[in-house]
Specification:
Layout: E1 2-4, E2 13-16, E3 19-29, E4 37-44, E5 50-56, E6 60-63, E7 67-77, E8 80-85, E9 91-94, H1 96-99, E10 111-117, E11 120-125, E12 129-137, E13 150-155, E14 160-164, E15 172-176, E16 182-185
Length: 188
């Protein structure tokens, strides 16, 4: 399906320069001289390389048809990551390259979305919010102002994040899977 360059949105999967790309971000640019264009950041679905590209409004880009299915994370081994289809219980194996940096957030039995282009998996999406445990953070300093109320913390999976001052060690928090930032303290 063709889509004009200025209609690209984050999350779309496109074919460009002979390979498949995920649109990471777009920005409309209207220079003083010349026509407007979209400045688009792309991520290669095969090797995770990034590309910044300009698309004019009159340029057509091939948008790929993407099918999304829900899977449950089962386990990981030397061959990759294994997920079970929640509808027919068939297993699928995703390579470490495809899972990438999301691997540290995968939890037993977590339900994820896997996107397919022509029956081939191209993208893994985590749930919108992830519950994690804070294992190490600094104590609150009395008199600290609200403006600097965020402090560094380390989660049980080793990920480093900034959390509000009231979060203590062994507290469960919710973080966003799109920005990997603190959302709220988890309710028990």
């Amino acid at each position: 399906m063709k889509v004009s360059g200025n209609n690209l949105k984050a999350g779309m999967i496109i074919s460009h320069k002979g390979t498949d790309w995920k649109v990471v971000s777009t920005q409309a640019v209207k220079p003083g001289k010349g026509g407007a264009f979209a400045q688009v950041e792309l991520k290669n679905l095969k090797d995770n390389s990034k590309l910044n590209e300009r698309f004019r409004a009159n340029e057509d880009v091939d948008r790929l048809f993407v099918e999304s299915k829900e899977f449950q994370f089962s386990y990981k081994d030397d061959q990759g990551f294994y997920f079970m289809d929640t509808t027919n219980f068939e297993q699928i194996n995703l390579s470490s390259d495809l899972v990438g940096e999301l691997a540290i957030f995968l939890q037993d039995n977590m339900v994820v979305s896997i996107e397919f282009v022509e029956d081939s998996p191209v993208l893994l999406k985590l749930p919108e919010h992830i519950k994690e445990k804070v294992v190490e953070t600094e104590a609150v300093i009395k008199g600290q102002t609200a403006a600097s109320s965020f402090k560094p913390a380390i989660l049980s999976n080793g990920f480093k994040i900034m959390v509000p001052g009231h979060i203590e060690n062994n507290t469960f928090i919710i973080l966003s899977s799109t920005t990997f930032t603190y959302v709220e303290k988890a309710k028990n």
